[in-house]
Amino acid sequence: MLEARDVVVHAGGAELLRGVSVAVRPGEVVAVIGPNGAGKSTLLRVLSGDVAPRAGTVSMDGVALARLPILEQARRRAVLAQGAELTFGFTALQVALLGRSPHLGTTTARRDRGIARAALRRARVHHLASRSYLTLSGGERQRVMLARALAQIWEAPAHGARYLLLDEPTAALDLAQQHGALEVARAMAETGTGVLVILHDLNLAARHARRVLLIANGRAVAQGTPAEVLREAVLESVFGIGVRVVADPVDGLPLVFARAAGGDVRHGSRLARSDARNSLLE
Amino acid sequence: MRRIARRIQRRTRHGVSARRFFLLACGVAAASAAAASFANGAVPIAPSQIAAILGAQLGIPPAWSFEPRQEAVLLAIRLPRVLLGALTGAVLAVAGAAVQGLLRNPLADPALLGISAGAALAAAATIVCAPALPVAIAGWAAWTLLPVTAFTGAVAATAIVHRLANRNGHTSVATVLLAGIAINAIAGAGTGLLAHLATDAQLRDITFWTLGSLAGATWPSLAVAAPMLAAALLLARPLVPALDLLLLGESEARHLGVDVEAVKRRIVLLVGLGVGAAVSITGIIGFVGLVVPHVVRLIAGPAHRTVLPASALLGAALLLAADLASRTAVAPAELPIGVLTGLIGGPFFLWLLTRNRAAAWV
Asked: To which CATH superfamily is domain A2-230 assigned?
C-alpha cells in the first residue's frame, strides 16, 4: 500500500496541502479530482517522493518513503508527471526502454526490448516504435510516455507491490484515447498494481475509478465510491458552479453536467456548503 | 549528411553492429588525424619512419632509416603534442556532451558557459600572483599549481552556471546562456585586469591562455594534465544511463531511480577536472564541446551509450586536425587553435540556430 497520512506541504509561504490522507491499495484505481490549484499534483509529488511533507507520513508497503532507496522505489513505482518534456530525438522505442533502466542488471537487454515493445503495444503506439519522439503529436507523445511508465513496472517486483501515479494522463487525448489510457490503467490494477490518477473530467473518474478523492484548498473534501463523492451539493460548493448529477440509464454510474451559472445557483451553492461539511464528517 | 544520418539511424535501430561500425569509423578518423599530425610539420616524417622510430624505442631494430633530427622532433615535440591534443579534444567533447545532458540544452558548451573563462581567470591569477607569494614555488609544485587552480576556477564557474540556471528542477535555456555570457564577461574583465597588472612575460603567458594552443605540450606538462584528463573521461563512463534519463527531466530521472544530486556533482567534477586540466595547458579552445556532440547526435541519435564514446573519438580527431592546420597553414608561424575552432564552430553554431528555429533540438 502506498499511503500518505495527514500530509502538510508548504511552499513559498502558501499551504498547498493541509492534512490530506490517501491510501493506494494494490489492485485498485483511485482518482483524485478537484479544482485547479487544489493540491492534486502536490499530493502526487508527495507520493512520488519529489516533495517531503512538513508534517505527516508517506510510506510504501509499510516502509517510510525517506528510508527506501530511490532505485528501490523506482522498481516498484512509476510516475507519469504532467508536461514531461523531451527535446532530444529518441525513438519511441528508446523512450519506452528508458523505463526499464531501474532494472538494469536484473534482466537481459533482449527481455527489456521485449517489454518495451509490449508496453508500446499496450499504450497503442506500437506502430510509432521507430519514429523520433520529436515528430510525434501531443497525444502520441503522451501515450509513448505512458508506455515508458508501464515498462517500468511491467513485472511484479521481488517484494512489495507495484504503483502507478498518473497526473492528467488524458490531457492531450481524444475521446477514444482518453478511455483507452484509463482502460490501460485499469488493466494494470487488475494485475495487482495500485493506481492513482489525477483527472479533471469527473465522468472519466466516475467510469474508471473504484474510489474518488475530492480535494479543494489543500484539504480532502470527500472520499469514497464515485456515487458517494460525485454529489450535486458537494461539487457545487467545491467548483462554485451549478452541477447536475444523474445516473447513467445503462450502468447506473453518476454522470455530471455543468449548468449555466446564474444567481440562484450561487444561492444554492451557499446552502450546499453545509451538506459538503456533513459529507466530510462521514 | 542527413541521408547518411538516416541510414545509420535506421541500421542502428535494427542491431548493435551499426553502432559498432559508427564507433569504428570515429576511431579511424581519430587515428588518421593522429598519424597525419605525426607525419606533417617543419620536419616531415614518412609513416614508415614513424613506425621505425617508435619501434626503436621499444627495442625493435628499425627496418627503415631515419635521421636523428626526425627522431628528436617526433619524440620530444610531436608525440606529447598529439597525446595532449587527443586527450584535450576528447575531454572537451565529452564535457560538452555531459553539460548538454545535464542542462537538457544542446547549446551548452564549456567555453560558451564561461567554464573555460573561469579556468583561464584562475590561471591568469596564478600567473600574476604566484611570484608575489612569500614562499617560492618550484619544481613539481610549480607544475601542478596551474592545473589545480584552473580546475578550481572551472568547477566554480560550472557550479555557478548550474545554480543560476536551475530553478525547482527546471532549466531555462535563456538563463543558461545569459548566465554563461555574464560569467564570460566577469571572467574576461578579471583576466583583462590581471593582464593590465602583469609584467611583459606574464602578459605573453596570459594572452596564450585566452587564445588556445597545443604548443605548450611537453612531457612534464603532460605528466600533470594527462591523469586529470583521463580521470575526467573515466568519470564520464558510468554516467551513461543517468545522462539518458536526465534528458527526460530531473524529477523524471529521480522517478526512474537516478540519484540526481550525486550525478550532478559528478558531472560538475568531471567538467571542472577535464576542462580545468585542458585549459591549464592549452588555454581556451572553444566550440569543440559544442560541435562534436551535435554532429554525433545528428548521425547516431541522442543515446549517450554512443554519444559519449563517439564524441571522445571525434573530439580528438577534430582537435588534432585543427592543430595540424594551425601549425602548417602559415608555417613556420602558428595560428592560435582557438581561431580555427572558432572559424569552424562559429558558422556551424549559426546554422544550428537557424535550423532549430523551426524544428526541435536533435
From this structure: P-loop containing nucleotide triphosphate hydrolases (3.40.50.300)
